[in-house]
Design goal:
globular; six-stranded mixed β-sheet; alpha/beta; 276 residues
Length: 276
């Protein structure tokens, strides 16, 4: 069976400046159907650029991308919209629309009639609002939403599309801990229920290791580690990639955590990295 998405030898440089600023220097990454992978790395490591390449918004200078076994360039935008949902890091919502209307618009790639939603569309919208904890926002206007509420609506729109491949760029941005956990639970439920492949850029290493069975670390334009979080997120790698010294500790339930260190002692907030 072909991978849901595969990148081989991706290279990309922004042309501004002299010489061109190289961002990706040979990225290899593949996701199978039903797999949830957290993409982590420091700011400026190329995570958002990689997602833009994978969706065709940018074209690589070298390398190949395939989706469900077909080269990306052979997919039409309409075909991609039916199979792939993308949650960008920032997206403006038209302020005059109700939240329920916006989530229903995400069903457009599956439309079977010119006007009006089908029962399947209404069910998908209702389910997406519930899973993103946005049901209470259904009648609110987009222009009246807070940053966290807006993010939950964007997640609901991605879920309503019912994709086979879901690409998320910081889905928990602007969310408090409870809503961040809720959103990632919804994504995990979608993966489990429908076998959706999910690639999510996540900054919080504790959340990444809790919800993803696999973590890929992007650093200086390359994937420098890829595997289960308890084998990847080690103190030596964290120090090299993120420039932060950490020590290991163990919780009462046996989970291994990393505690960031500062001059004079350890910070009180541990970073969970999965079960041993």
């Amino acid at each position: 069976m072909s991978a849901a998405i595969r990148a081989d030898g991706l290279r990309f440089a922004f042309p501004a400046g002299s010489p061109a600023r190289s961002v990706l220097r040979g990225v290899d990454l593949a996701l199978d159907r039903g797999e949830l992978v957290a993409l982590v790395g420091p700011n400026g490591s190329g995570k958002t650029t990689l997602l833009r390449l994978l969706t065709g918004l940018l074209r690589p200078d070298a390398g190949r991308i395939s989706i469900f076994g077909r080269p990306l360039e052979r997919w039409s935008r309409a075909e991609l919209a039916r199979r792939v949902a993308v949650l960008p890091q920032s997206l403006e919502l038209p302020p005059g629309f109700r939240v329920a209307e916006l989530v229903e618009m995400a069903r457009a790639p599956h439309a079977r009639r010119l006007f009006g939603a089908t029962p399947e569309d209404r069910d998908a919208v209702e389910r997406a609002l519930l899973e993103a904890d946005a049901t209470a926002l259904a009648d609110r206007r987009a222009g009246a939403l807070s940053g966290g509420e807006r993010q939950r609506v964007l997640v609901a729109m991605s879920l309503a599309q019912e994709p086979d491949l879901l690409l998320l760029d910081e889905p928990t941005i602007h969310l408090d801990l409870a809503h961040a956990v809720g959103v990632l639970r919804a994504v995990e439920a979608l993966r489990s229920r429908r076998g959706v492949a999910v690639l999510a850029v996540v900054h919080d290493l504790a959340l990444a290791s809790t919800f993803a069975a696999r973590v890929a670390v992007l650093h200086e334009g390359r994937i420098v580690a890829d595997g289960p979080p308890q084998r990847v997120l080690l103190p030596s790698l964290i120090g090299r990639v993120f420039g932060v010294s950490v020590e290991e500790a163990t919780t009462r339930d046996g989970r291994r955590v990393l505690v960031p260190l500062v001059a004079g002692g350890a910070l009180p907030r541990p970073v969970a990295v999965g079960d041993e």
